[in-house]
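Working notes for the structural subgroup meeting. M.R. asked for a predicted model of this chain before we commit to crystallization trials. I am recording the input and output together here so anyone reviewing the notebook later can reproduce the run.

Input as submitted:
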Amino acid sequence: MLLKNDRGVLPLKPGSKVLVVGKSADSVADQSGGWTLTWQGTDNSNADFPNADSILAGIREAVGNGNVTFRDSPDDVDVAGFDAIVAVVGESPYAEGAGDIVPASTLSHSTRRPEDLALLQAIAGKGKPVVTVFLSGRPLYVNDLLNLSDAFVAAWLPGSEGKGVSDVLVGGADGKPAHNFTGRLSFSWPGVACPAPGARGAGDAPPLFGVGYGLSYGTDAAVGVLPVSIPSAGCADASTLSIFNMRDFAPFALHLSGHGEQFKLGADLNATVEWPRDRPLLRVRTVQISTQQDAKEVAWLGPASFLSRGQGASNFNPMRSANGALQFDTVLTTPPKSPVLASMECGRNCVASVDLTKMFAGLEPGRRHTVIVPLACFASRGADLGGIEVPFRITADKPFAAAFTAIQIVAGAGQDSNALDCDIQP
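Returned structure, recorded in token form:
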């Protein structure tokens, strides 16, 4: 579906010099989305789709293989030698809850996938037309990406048929369109990061692209420069700040820590990770607490930490004022025989810990339990809640194993009858 084609940069001409960039250009897994070979559609390679064509393969065939250069990133590439740049970006595969956008979050794609914005910023404005092919399972706020693109194609999830995308991107030998864009929106496309129902903006402003919108070759409709506004605090005063539940919630990411080193766990739902490889301290695998593959079971093989780190500092003071708490669901596998600490970190040498040893030792193995630690507990132990970099860290030693999910900061939870009593902690 063609959303933008300012100055008629499409179709590309066969035989022209084309630079193709982007994480999804040669990924049939990204083209296919969730429920493809695996539940979430992650960790698949092109080899798992033996009769499929990536979008890159389609462009190479249509333009001429020798005229197409592919780079995962535009670093150290001189765009002066190309006639056009095609960036293939978008959402990574997901299914069911893993793709949910929580109510307080914006619809901004760049908030969740900042690497796509960075890529377009690196190639735009250098005198070469930029064509963006956007893969997604839904309309998203992409005004910033549209502004960096001369043409913008919503390819949705084309599955195995990457050549179907190149059919409409590349013209015939005479330079005229070989196949036309005929797709039209069956739902509205948002022009603001926090839209009302129907993708409408404030004051019932119309959506960026309404139902029935879609360009074809020969349509004279320039999109032009769009306003860009992405609220840093989200779409509303959040009552819940999600950290992890089946997947990481930006800007947080799960890590393992030990031996003075850290390791980013990543999004693989199928692999069992033993880290470090040479002398493992932690073993992590994906399990179920509430829904399929929603939790990480962590077995301590030595002194180490399981944590979630933010990209920067988060201000939890408003949540503390609202009697907020760190809350997570856990299922005990192996009771601890040494201290288990829950910590928050607020910069170098700023760590506040709450002892959960007695609590974990008293749990019945195999049954779900919700742990609620008031933010006031961490504040009373020296945490600067205005600058939290690590909102969740469990530090322990062997033998201890438990599964964790639904990690979040919840307003009002500090007053829950089941919340931890800080005053009786060691």
